[in-house]
């Protein structure tokens, strides 16, 4: 077993969903497609779109605030902020640094994980689980956010129908329960051009069939390797938190594992493929709503054409009951810092994103498992 010894707790989650909803009917009005075509091939019925004057960091700040509140900590308690976007506000400064300033997390280390596409968020979570292993950090804010809809070609149905915008947050802390910790994981990479962004700021291009073949092959295999490393039979995993890219891919992967779809919370139908935020929206949907049954295990999984992973995390976590996605933050912008009136300041970031030519006490313990590129959690939940 390849686990980490220090217990890690997920003590709060949060989500930000932009208020604008883009339906399949709206896309069908300008693309050679239909609601029936989109639903049959992706399972997606709607997605969110971030306002043009907002940036990825704005969504991060709006998702972080309810996560901090749920965890019962303030921004000043945060020792590190790790953000996993592929639609960063700009190359420098980092999105994490912008979020740190907006929240007032004065002493937090900051880091962006940006080069593994949809796997950014899970890899950020994996790194965050390692920080409490030393005295360097006790409380870590992990964020995954992408304005993925902003960077797709509006005339390309092979990409535009998939993507939506969202942000998710999780607070990781040291925990006292001795059985907590990272149990095992599986990460891998495979160079391919199933999805690529050519030079000179072109839009992403995707080979849908190749992505399907890669995902349905790698996803179940990686899950099995991670559960094997963690010495946890896959049939004991109660919750599967999977990359929310395509409902059909999720169904196919679970079928190969002999796992019913009911064990995997689904957000792709209403939010589309939200990039690195997908697993976090699923986590918030299940645990933010306080729906985990006793003695459960959860598995999280996320992948990209070049990177994938599936760690098994055993973590003691206090997760209080919350409204789930139905009550997720849906403001057009997050509260502005005191210097928001300064010339050139927009939202939480100094610059609006431009990318690809676009503006861019628990009474009892419940064990949870999560499989994505990140994995198995055990945690006490407030009943």
Automatic annotation (TrEMBL):
Residues 115-189 form the Beta-ketoacyl-[acyl-carrier-protein] synthase III N-terminal domain. PANTHER family: 3-OXOACYL-[ACYL-CARRIER-PROTEIN] SYNTHASE 3 (PTHR34069), BETA-KETOACYL-[ACYL-CARRIER-PROTEIN] SYNTHASE III (PTHR34069:SF2). GO terms for molecular function: 3-oxoacyl-[acyl-carrier-protein] synthase activity. It comes from the Bacteria. GO terms for biological process: fatty acid biosynthetic process; secondary metabolite biosynthetic process. Coiled coil: none annotated. This is Ketoacyl-ACP synthase III. Residues 229-293 form the Beta-ketoacyl-[acyl-carrier-protein] synthase III C-terminal domain. InterPro entries: ACP_syn_III_C (IPR013747), ACP_syn_III_N (IPR013751), Thiolase-like (IPR016039). Transmembrane segments: none annotated. Pfam families: ACP_syn_III, ACP_syn_III_C. SUPFAM superfamilies: Thiolase-like. The keyword Transmembrane does not apply. Keywords: Acyltransferase, Transferase.
């Amino acid at each position: 077993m390849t686990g980490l010894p220090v217990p890690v707790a997920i003590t709060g989650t949060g989500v930000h969903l932009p208020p604008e909803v883009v339906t399949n009917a709206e896309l069908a009005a300008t693309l050679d497609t239909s609601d029936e075509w989109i639903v049959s091939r992706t399972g997606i019925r709607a997605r969110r779109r971030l306002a043009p004057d907002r940036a990825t960091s704005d969504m991060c700040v709006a998702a972080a605030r309810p996560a901090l509140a749920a965890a019962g900590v303030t921004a000043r308690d945060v020792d590190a902020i790790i953000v996993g976007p592929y639609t960063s506000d700009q190359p420098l400064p980092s999105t994490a640094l912008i979020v740190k300033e907006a929240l007032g997390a004065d002493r937090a280390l900051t880091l962006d994980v940006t080069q593994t596409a949809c796997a950014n968020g899970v890899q950020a979570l994996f790194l965050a689980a390692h920080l409490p292993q030393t005295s360097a950090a006790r409380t870590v804010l992990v964020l995954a956010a992408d304005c993925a809809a902003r960077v797709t070609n509006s005339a390309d149905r092979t990409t535009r129908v998939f993507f939506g915008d969202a942000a998710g947050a999780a607070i990781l802390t040291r925990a006292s329960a001795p059985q907590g910790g990272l149990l095992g994981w599986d990460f891998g990479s495979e160079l391919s051009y199933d999805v690529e962004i050519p030079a000179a700021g072109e839009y992403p291009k995707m080979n849908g069939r190749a992505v399907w073949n890669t995902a349905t092959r790698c996803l179940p295999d990686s899950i099995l390797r991670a559960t094997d490393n963690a010495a946890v039979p896959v049939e004991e995993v109660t919750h599967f938190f999977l990359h929310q890219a395509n409902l059909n891919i999720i169904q196919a992967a679970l079928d190969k594992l002999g796992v019913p779809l009911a064990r995997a919370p689904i957000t792709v139908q209403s939010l589309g493929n939200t990039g690195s935020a997908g697993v976090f929206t699923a986590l918030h949907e299940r645990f933010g709503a306080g729906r985990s049954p006793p003695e459960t295990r959860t598995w999280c999984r996320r992948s990209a054409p070049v990177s994938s992973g599936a760690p098994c995390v055993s973590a003691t976590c206090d997760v209080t009951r919350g409204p789930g996605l139905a009550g997720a933050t849906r403001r057009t912008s997050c509260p502005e810092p005191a210097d928001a009136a300064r010339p050139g300041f927009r939202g939480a970031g100094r610059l609006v994103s431009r990318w690809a030519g676009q503006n861019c006490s628990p009474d009892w313990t419940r064990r949870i498992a999560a499989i994505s590129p990140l994995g198995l959690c055990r945690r006490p939940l407030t009943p």
